[in-house]
Amino acid sequence: MRRFLRVAAGFSWRTLGRVRLDKIAIIVDDYDRAIAFFTGALGFDLVEDSPSLTNDGRPKRWVVVRPPGGGTGILLAEADGGRQAAAVGNQTAGRVGFFLEVDDFDAAYQRMTAAGVEFVTAPRTEPYGRVAVFTDIVGNRWDLLMSPLVLSGAARCCRPAVGPLGTSAGCTGHPQRAPTATAVRPV
């Protein structure tokens, strides 16, 4: 296990400016099937599909999808070798590892079900929101999630929902009301 280096006195991440999670990788067994699932069944945007090379010079593709209005992209990485192939569909050891938050849970659930997405739990309401677990094209577990703030109406804004999953681009005209209580999702 690696040890963290001590941070120099006075160092602050704030001095780096904006820091954000740009992409995560999901290992898949076939680029085209994965693209079809994420863009068709989930309604994500195909941001990039470009030829690329592996570290040792073999051809591969650089494929990125992103939820409509979402910031973080998903790099669809085709398994290369036995170790990666063994991780396909099991990147989080059977736990829910990905969280798709929507503004209109019922519309998203109905659309995804009609598109053939397999839900492994029925929708339910928890302290952290409305949720149902589904699997992606290779078997990774995801939460379809609607925040309790949206459920209560506290997060409503002036911009209507857009996108195939009921996601919204978010309001930029005024600040959202602050929540009165914080919901914490158990891990």
Structure description:
The chain has 187 residues and is of the alpha+beta class. It has a single domain, classed as 2,3-Dihydroxybiphenyl 1,2-Dioxygenase, domain 1, CATH 3.10.180. It contains four helices and nine strands. A hairpin with a 5-residue loop joins β8 and β9. The longest helix is centred in the N-terminal third of the chain and has 11 residues. The radius of gyration is 19 Å and the shape is globular. The two termini are 22 Å apart. The C terminus is likely disordered.
Distance between the termini: 22 Å
Instruction: Please tell me how large the radius of gyration is.
Output: 19 Å
Backbone structural class: alpha+beta
Q: Give the mean pLDDT.
A: 83
Second rung of CATH, namely the architecture: Roll
User: In percent terms, what proportion of residues is strand?
Assistant: 25-35%
Low-pLDDT windows of residues: 156-162, 167-187
Tally the beta strands: 9
Put simply, the count of helices is: 4
What general outline do the C-alpha atoms trace? Answer: globular
Q: Return the string of H and E elements.
A: EHEEEHEHEEEEH
CATH level-1 class: Alpha Beta
Q: Which oligomeric state applies?
A: single chain
CATH H level, superfamily name: 2,3-Dihydroxybiphenyl 1,2-Dioxygenase, domain 1
Biggest β-sheet description: 5 strands, mixed
Reported by name, the CATH topology is 2,3-Dihydroxybiphenyl 1,2-Dioxygenase, domain 1
Number of domains: 1
Helical proportion, percent range: 10-25%
